[in-house]
Amino acid sequence: MSPTVFVVDDDAALREALVQLLEAAGLQVENFPDGQSFLTAFVADRPGCLLLDVAMPGMTGLEVQAALTARGVQIPVVFLTGHGDIPMAVRAVQAGAVDFLEKPMTGQALLERVHRALALDQERRHAQALNHGVAERARRLSQREREVMALVVAGSSSKEVARLLGISVRTVEAHRTHVMHKMGATNLAELVGMAVHCELGLSPGPTPPT
Known about the structure:
single chain, alpha/beta, Rossmann fold, Arc Repressor Mutant, subunit A, 2 domains, five-stranded parallel β-sheet, 9 helices, elongated
């Protein structure tokens, strides 16, 4: 699905100018005159970014941003602001917006911010897909393999894992090989990265036998 630039601004003339500029740059655009109409039409999993006016009648840009956050939507937001609205725009950035532009803005500045926001969205979606794939592979591990993986990524040697789990070193090595294969890791550094980056929540294993 191609990314879409969603433009939300109550100024019809500015909105039309933004649409023309973005479409001339080869971008797919949808525009809305107010926050509520955008929220009603928007589907959360659509790729893209949002150009959002800060000060609008009805729902303000900050309220639209809050509504998206409440839905768990992570679309990159670039706020459009008049000079007097800059403090509001700063608060919006602090709440998670990626940038803000002061009106009137140049076409080049706008396109630069939009392309940056679209790149951020693509990176986030790629990371989410990667994390989902790693989590799916981790769920296919047996309980013993999960225990071995947790101890290995924590820095334990095969001998230490064997002692902690009360099994032989040879058995630890076999489990470790299975873990590497199932997780698709080519080395220990990759396995550690998968566990840490995706927050797999692996348990440290049972208490050492006495």
